[in-house]
């Protein structure tokens, strides 16, 4: 593990137990946001966002005010705040998910925010109810902080890439279901119904998320030695898997139906920003060209900006 500024290094094998615990914690907080935030297409109302200290729900409406929950990964506290100035904190430390769940819900109730969630994780197998999860107990504070700093670097580059698109596009946000930082562009056309298939996630959830043609990319702390950047399109057009994309370290995974680029190939390159941007741009072009997107209408011209 190295965090010397720039693109920090963190081997997945060195923090897998902490990663899996943090995954469950973010699912709990994400479900709290989902219980109160107004619905937005493609489930954008359930995501978390990077903050200057970690991950946050942003302001969530509640009655005539709002509340916010933030994973402070500098001081390692879960901070719960309301718009009337009250606050609570839950320590981020080695402890079972069941304890974190109970303390978080108690802190929320102590602030007067009455909340009920479906207290079972999604997109994982097995799906142990939060209140019963005594298995996930690890928390390496240094590793969790390095992961956040990896997300900051990924968001910075993906956010700049986002500016090169005029069509409908998502924020760069953290989906707690799969624990990935994601960004999605849309062609503007509807897509065929998604077949589903994610573990412990109803098919109707997937159909809403993939209701329109899209090209998505992001970063996931798995799939390789130090995590993986990914890109995919739905529906996948003929020839997509055979398309040559950049950089040379990128490859298509037929099991996942995604292009993958190891984090270490980005962080270890002479110009990490350019390497990642090349991957994002070339995989988008593969999706847009082969999918027949109207690129002239969706992308800014040479005089833009």
Can you put this structure into words, describing what you see?
Pfam families: DUF5996. This is Ava_C0101 and related proteins. Strands 1, 2, 3, 4, 5 and 6 form a 6-stranded antiparallel beta sheet that branches. The chain has a 6-stranded antiparallel beta sheet with strand order 7-8-9-10-12-11. A hairpin with a 3-residue loop joins β1 and β2. It is about 30% helix and about 20% strand. It is α+β, with helices and mostly antiparallel strands. It folds into 2 domains: about 10-130; about 140-300, no CATH class. It has 7 helices and 12 strands.
Features:
305 residues; six-stranded antiparallel beta sheet; 21% strand; 2 domains; 7 helices
Q: How large is the share of residues in beta strands?
A: 15-25%
**Quaternary status of these chains?**
single chain
Total beta strands: 12
What general outline do the C-alpha atoms trace?
Answer: globular
Quote the distance from N terminus to C terminus.
39 Å
The biggest sheet, with number of strands, parallel, antiparallel or mixed sense and barrel status, is: 6 strands, antiparallel
The radius of gyration over CA amounts to 19 Å
Q: Could you tell me the mean pLDDT?
A: 96
If helices are DSSP runs of H or I spanning 4 or more residues, what is the number of helices?
7
**Structural class, judged by helices and strands?**
alpha+beta
Can you tell me the residue ranges where pLDDT is under 50 for at least 5 consecutive residues? Answer: none
- How many domains make up the 3D coordinates? 2
Organism: Dactylosporangium aurantiacum
Protein name: Ava_C0101 and related proteins
